[in-house]
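Figure 3 (text version): structure tokens given as input.
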């Protein structure tokens, strides 16, 4: 079996929350894949944790000291010369002036726009797509709030910058759900970069022209291939679900329930320690779900989440 090299990789982020930028660095002459662009970082040395390797590599490569680090996704990739396990971290705060000490150059790239630099290391391609996901995934709740009130809530949220919404409401009758979905898509069409996923109903998603599909954990195991939508997500409750979602090549998942919820007040949820353990090796971005509030976003990111999925806690 080919040994796997452990690598710490940094996604340095700066700028406004609505239009952040990330850093790419160019590999210097003399190295494998010289001239390719990559996220800075490097191999984990014997006796180091991945976090320690990240801190050391950024000091050596860019001359900076990190102040805040969020664990993120973990991807494995096999190059002709080596197999690597890349543990990515998101970094929003550091001190020191960035300099290409061990690279030929560096460039700041806006999330969601063409990188403008090429070629990019093959292992980094999925990371560029994952970075486009916003920190909040809102779930509709027309069943509880009423359709008209929920449409008003969605309209306000989209005007305020909401970009990722799941049309849930599985117990609505087919005709009201169809009308609700059409109304939501009309609202989303007037919002910049808004993405709407339909929960568990491929026919409805295609009928209304939704941007994607959100699978229940049951549907996750009934499919043998990824559905043909631009965005596909799934609900996960355990390690096996997370593995299955990755095997199907989904874009992201939600994991929970994390904390007690209004829907299930007697259930304790998996809690933050177990959440961190489950997502530690996930190649897919994971949203924390269950009892979440918007102010819990930083806590979720420290635990390895991409963001939070909110049913009641969004406006």
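Below: residues designed for each position.
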């Amino acid at each position: 079996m080919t040994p796997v090299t452990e690598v710490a990789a940094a996604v340095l982020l700066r700028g406004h929350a609505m239009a952040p930028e990330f850093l790419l660095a160019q590999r210097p002459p003399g190295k494998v894949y010289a001239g390719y662009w990559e996220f800075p970082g490097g191999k984990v040395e014997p006796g180091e944790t991945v976090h320690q390797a990240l801190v050391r590599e950024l000091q050596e490569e860019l001359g900076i000291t990190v102040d805040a680090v969020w664990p993120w996704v973990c991807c494995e990739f096999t190059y002709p010369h080596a197999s690597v396990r890349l543990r990515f971290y998101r970094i929003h705060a550091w001190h020191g002036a960035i300099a290409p000490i061990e690279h030929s150059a560096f460039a700041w790239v806006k999330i969601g726009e063409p990188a403008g630099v090429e070629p990019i290391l093959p292992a980094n391609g999925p990371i560029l797509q994952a970075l486009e996901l916003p920190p909040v995934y809102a779930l509709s709740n027309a069943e509880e709030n009423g359709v008209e009130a929920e449409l008003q809530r969605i309209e306000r949220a989209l005007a305020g910058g909401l970009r990722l919404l799941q049309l849930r409401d599985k117990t609505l009758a087919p005709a009201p759900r169809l009308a609700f979905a059409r109304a939501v898509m009309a609202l989303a069409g007037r919002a910049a970069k808004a993405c709407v996923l339909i929960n568990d109903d491929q026919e409805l998603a295609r009928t209304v022209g939704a941007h994607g599909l959100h699978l229940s954990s049951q549907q996750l195991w009934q499919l043998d291939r990824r559905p043909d939508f631009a965005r596909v997500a799934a609900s996960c409750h355990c390690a096996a679900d997370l593995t299955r979602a990755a095997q199907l090549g989904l874009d992201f998942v939600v994991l929970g329930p994390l904390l007690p919820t209004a829907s299930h007040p007697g259930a304790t949820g998996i809690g933050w320690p177990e959440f961190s353990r489950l997502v530690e090796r996930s190649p897919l971005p994971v949203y924390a779900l269950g009892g979440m509030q918007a102010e819990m976003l930083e806590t979720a990111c420290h635990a390895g989440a991409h963001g939070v999925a909110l049913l009641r806690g969004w406006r």
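The first helix runs from residue 50 to 62.
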